[in-house]
Design brief:
Blueprint lengths: L1 H16 L8 H14 L5 H10 L1 H11 L10 H15 L5 E6 L5 H12 L6 E7 L2 H9 L1 E3 L3 H10 L10 E4 L2 E4 L7 E5 L11 E6 L8 H14 E9 L14 E5 L4 E4 L2
Parallel strand pairs: 1-2, 1-7, 2-6, 7-8
Antiparallel strand pairs: 3-5, 4-5, 8-10, 9-10
Helix pairs in contact: 1-3, 2-4, 3-4
Length: 269
């Protein structure tokens, strides 16, 4: 019965608001829906469906529940270190470098990439496209303002990723917040993009899509892999999350493995 209720809720969201969550992994969707049902003090998922159809504010809350906001500067430092040592040397001679950060959330990993490129002398000829389904996340990312509470961890991550300077050079502390230097946004484009319904919009040398695919079912994962494949230049690099991979996908034979631990691949056909 609950599965029927969830299917009807997701169909109603798609028809009424145009957001398509029907291919998301059921356990993830169940957790987020139950959270919203409890917060709204509703008796059932069907009652939530009725409410979101008549109250856009509740739909906005549920949309935020579905958005994936777990991130930090230089998250998984070893991944960024491999980018620095094994990927950047292979693209150094390119006249322009295009990078797509998929599911960029509030921007911490985007600024991490900008710092990495800057320290390797590649930032001036790079363009980073940072996309997310959630406009609220993008608004926060554009500001480049983060809580000072995370800076100790972020600094440690930065040095573990091979950081070459004092991390504090990249931001200014103002009260309980830090503001990152404006030049780190100069070559970044923040834009809304929905992996489920939108298409490719450029050809990229590097695509970072970490910890996004784990929230999708198998069918949707293959659909997104098709989009990523079409968006990546030949010999371009794809970075996935630690619990993700390409081995059992529809495009598993289209890449060579660059680093098995960090889930970094290079398109070879």
């Amino acid at each position: 019965m609950e599965k029927i209720e969830i299917d009807l809720l997701l169909e109603a969201i798609y028809r009424c608001y145009g957001y398509d969550f029907r291919g998301y992994a059921l356990p993830f969707i169940q957790r987020r829906i139950h959270h919203r049902v409890r917060n709204e003090k509703l008796p059932s998922i069907s009652a939530l469906q009725e409410k979101i159809l008549h109250d856009p504010a509740v739909m906005e809350s549920l949309f935020c529940d579905f958005s994936i906001n777990v991130t930090e500067m230089f998250r998984d430092p070893s991944f960024f270190k491999v980018l620095r040592t094994r990927v950047f040397p292979k693209i150094r001679d390119k006249s322009t470098i295009r990078i797509w950060h998929v599911g960029s959330s509030t921007g911490e990993e985007v600024y991490s990439m900008a710092i990495l490129l800057y320290e390797e002398g590649l930032y001036e000829k790079s363009k980073i496209y940072a996309t997310d389904i959630n406009e609220s996340n993008l608004s926060k990312a554009k500001k480049g303002v983060f809580s000072i509470d995370g800076m100790q961890q972020y600094t440690q991550n930065y040095f573990e990723a091979g950081g070459k300077r004092a991390f504090s050079e990249y931001y200014k502390a103002i009260g309980e917040q830090v503001v990152f230097r404006p030049f780190l946004q100069t070559n970044v484009i923040f834009a809304q993009h929905n992996l489920v319904t939108d298409h490719t919009f450029n050809e990229f040398d590097i695509i970072i899509c970490r910890n996004v695919l784990i929230y999708f079912n198998k069918e949707l994962q293959n659909k997104v892999h098709q989009l990523l494949y079409e968006s990546l230049s030949l010999q371009g690099f794809l970075g996935l999350g630690k619990r993700e991979g390409i081995k059992f996908t529809s495009h598993g034979n289209c890449y060579e493995e660059i680093d098995a631990t960090e889930k970094l691949y290079r398109k070879n056909r």
